[in-house]
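User: Run a structure prediction on this.
Assistant: Running it now.
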Amino acid sequence: MIIYPAVDILKGKCVRLTEGVKDDSTVYYENPVDAAMMWEQKGAKWLHIIDLDGAFDGKPSNTAVLEAVIKKVRVPVQIGGGLRTIQDIDTMLNIGAARVIIGTAAVMDDEIVELCSKKYADKLIVSIDAKDGYVATDGWVNISQFSAYNFAQKLVYKGLKNFVYTDISRDGTMKGPNFNGIEKMCSVEHSKIIASGGVKGVEDILTIKSLGASGAIIGKALYNGSIKLEEALAVCEAAAKEV
């Protein structure tokens, strides 16, 4: 299982939100490049970077910062936040993103889903952000009529298989992940689930791995020191050897 340190960008700075609320942010690094390089130095094999301004505004807003991060690190980077068009996706791939993440676009635009399934294959991840079991859009502000599980099934049928699953009520809270939700999402046949939201300790990481997730995104727990990245990576490696 891959550990993805999260680098969330708001107004050009590296922040963490609580339950996705824009006005409830904590700045951890003035320059996101510093955060990204620090996680790479500590052993990260991937980075998960979200343009929060883009997510809220519906269009990429920190492209220059994202490009600066990609140029400074050697590890692959997956990027999301406000990518609503094929042009947006192409822009992120052109600046060096290894994978791109769409969320709202996958809910609102069937055509982009069809195109993405044919054009991007393994370079695309769909972010399924759930509140009370239903998919949220527009920076987690609006709630759709789709259940997270049914939506994932629909997308797998259309040819997409890579997903980030986040329980919004747990994100940035340090309350622990929604293990039931993660387990249900991992039961979607042919899906690969990266779990996100609420991870607070290495025990959570082991549980997520046992449920069948292909990865876990960790944010606040890394930034406040509740989890040491080196320890998280070692635990995953040891668990893999035991299988």
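The chain has one domain: 2-242.
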